[in-house]
Amino acid sequence: MLNLLMAAPPQGAAQGSTQGSMVQIGMIVLVFAVFWLLIIRPQRKKQKDEQKMRDGVKKGDRITSIGGIRGVVKNVADKTVIVEVDNKGNTLEFTKSAIGAVEAVDSAPRTDSAEAADKE
Questions:
Q1: pLDDT tens for residues 47-105?
Q2: Which CATH architecture has domain 58-106?
Q3: CA pair distance 104, 42, nearest whole angstrom
Q4: Which pLDDT value is given to residue 110?
Q5: The dihedral of CA 109, 112, 117, 120: what is its sign?
Q6: Confidence at residue 106, expressed as pLDDT on a 0 to 100 scale
Q7: Where are the domains of the chain?
Q8: What would you report as the CA-atom Rg of the chain, rounded to the nearest whole angstrom?
Q9: Is 6 helix (H, G, I), strand (E, B) or coil?
Q10: Got the DSSP string for 12-60?
Q11: What global pTM score does this model have?
């Protein structure tokens, strides 16, 4: 009976369990890599692009807030912007994080009256 307790396990069984655990570790690494490529990396890229857009806001740009308010930037500070929302001079102050989209002055869509003036 003492010989049975002292006997070493067969070597094939020890190698099989090592290979099985290596496969499991490999699968976990593979799942993490796929998760990184499909979810984390694109989200970080999107956040960087949005931050770059918000940092590039300058006076005269047309913006749309995340709440849908549209207007023209009149003043830019470190963390806020002052936006004119109508032709009467009414202004609102937004934090830069509230800016949803920026339309630069150069890329503003042309109106029909501006196009007619160019044709004359």
A1: 999 999 999 999 999 999 999 999 999 999 999 999 999 989 899 999 999 999 998 77
A2: Roll (2.30)
A3: 25
A4: 45
A5: positive
A6: 62
A7: 2-54, 58-106
A8: 31
A9: helix
A10: HHHHHHHHHHHHHHHHHHHHHHHHIIIIIHHHHHHHHHHHHHHHT--TT
A11: 0.59
